[in-house]
Write a structure and sequence with these properties.
The chain has 447 residues and is an alpha/beta fold. It has 18 helices and 12 strands.
Length: 447
């Protein structure tokens, strides 16, 4: 390998580490992009290949199999071939010859003449014969699994819980590109000011139909902008804004954010509080380094005077706080993350159904622990970033069965999302608005 990597060499290195070792794709890719100073266009190409291959891995493996016929391949060789198929099929603006030439060059640099010849033969056969149709898969769940590149157990759960039509819509939507969304920090700025500064900087955007004070970025970068640096905006998905949006936080409220790291919802709560009126949000996380992240977030957003951080397992909340201490409690619970498949493609391959069942038990134990800490008439907002019902409605119903002193209220949002639904809880599917999947419920302690 040459010292200065090409975009495809960076992508191959990152992908092989992720696929072999279960490394986090964003960490591996960012580390390599910092080390190898690629042009902006090459950075974009490397990034798109890494996330694209992870997103479509099962599909790509299905397409590759007829050309390798079960042959045992070195990990990096298989990754290189999957990368090549991804580019052939999904990157329409990249010419096939460019993909073929550089893939063969990588095979030569990383391996030997035998591997180079093998890769050359496979790539030429793919271009000559084309890719296998999904129509050859007779089993519906298997076909949907391979087409959407989602493990069969997830497909089966979605079909069981939402029906075939809605499951297909969800699975089609999760392979669409994820949007970058900014939320305006109303503690230091306002929507009109942010709009104007973004336009001046040449950043294009549209208004969010999901959440207030939110803009969906359609062109340009905001991470390195002065707006971001001074805490006037933060990056947060539209659906993730809805839990706090539904809480109706008042300036003088004392709020507990029970599962707070890295603090995105904490600062959203804090923006609405007034310290002079007694407003304060206490945050919990089990890990000290994550507690520091919450504090760092609060500092950047200029709301640290309204945030008190605690390194504490939410299930041990009684060790720190007396009963009826809080007007409102947010439990944004640990979950399987199945609403984030568009944004974090590799989690689809690492999660198992047993994980969801175990998380359901943890969620219940957190709710049980915090229940006495909310005042009579106060509300616990229970939310997750999953769309699996065993972690959502089932958790809520089992909590209510064990706590007759709580009532389930209908969750409402500023934009009145899905207000015509029959359920009191609110589930946002990835296919509803192109945002992350999310679940929110509102549990009021009876007077």
């Amino acid at each position: 390998m040459t010292k200065q990597m090409s975009a495809r060499a960076v992508a191959l290195t990152a992908l092989d580490r992720v696929r072999q070792n279960g490394s986090y794709s964003n960490l591996q890719l960012n580390q390599l992009l910092v080390k190898h100073q690629l042009s902006d266009s090459d950075r974009r190409l490397a990034t798109r290949i890494v996330y694209g291959v992870l997103q479509h891995q099962i599909t790509l493996e299905y397409w590759l199999q007829p050309f390798v016929k079960g042959k045992k391949l070195d990990s990096w060789v298989e990754t290189l071939l999957l990368m090549s198929i991804y580019q052939y099929h999904y990157l329409e603006r990249v010419p096939d010859w460019a993909v073929t030439n550089e893939s063969i060059e990588l095979a030569k640099n990383w391996g030997n003449q035998g591997i180079r010849k093998f890769v050359t033969g496979v790539l030429h056969a793919i271009l000559r014969q084309g890719l296998t149709s999904f129509d050859e898969i007779t089993d519906f769940v298997e076909r949907l699994s391979i087409k959407a590149s989602v493990p069969k157990w997830i497909v089966q759960e979605l079909v069981n819980q939402y029906g075939t039509d809605q499951a297909e819509q969800i699975l089609a939507s999760i392979n669409e590109p994820a949007h970058v969304v900014v939320r305006v920090n109303t503690a230091v700025s306002d929507l009109a000011t942010v709009r104007e500064e973004l336009r001046t900087a040449g950043v294009e955007f549209r208004e969010s139909e999901v959440a207030p004070n939110a803009l969906v970025i359609t062109s340009g970068s905001v991470i390195g902008s002065p707006l971001f640096a001074r805490g006037a905006i933060t990056i947060q998905d539209e659906s993730a804004m809805l839990a706090v949006d539904s809480m109706d936080v008042q300036p003088g409220d004392r709020v507990l954010d029970a599962c707070a790291a890295p603090g995105g919802k904490t600062v959203q709560i804090a923006e609405r509080l007034d310290q002079d009126s007694g407003g304060m949000v206490d945050t919990l996380d089990i890990h000290e380094h994550k507690t520091r992240l919450i504090q760092k977030n609060a500092d950047r957003m200029h709301v640290a005077d309204r945030v008190s951080t605690h390194t504490l397992d939410a299930r041990k909340v009684a060790d720190q706080f007396t009963d009826e201490s809080f007007d409102k409690i947010l439990v944004d619970a640990p979950c399987s993350g199945m609403g984030l498949l568009r944004r974090k493609p590799e989690i689809r391959y690492t999660k198992r159904l047993a994980d969801s069942v175990n998380l359901h038990q943890i969620q219940k134990s957190i709710l049980n622990a915090v229940a006495p800490k909310v005042k009579k008439g106060g509300i616990i907002t229970y939310s997750t970033c999953t769309i699996l019902k065993q972690e959502n409605d089932q958790t809520v119903q089992e909590f209510l069965a064990d706590h007759p002193d709580f009532t389930l209220l209908k969750t409402t949002t500023t934009r009145k999302l899905k207000d015509d639904r029959n359920s009191a809880t609110l589930t946002i599917l990835p296919s509803d608005y192109g945002s992350d999947g999310f679940f929110i419920s509102s549990l009021q302690r009876n007077l």
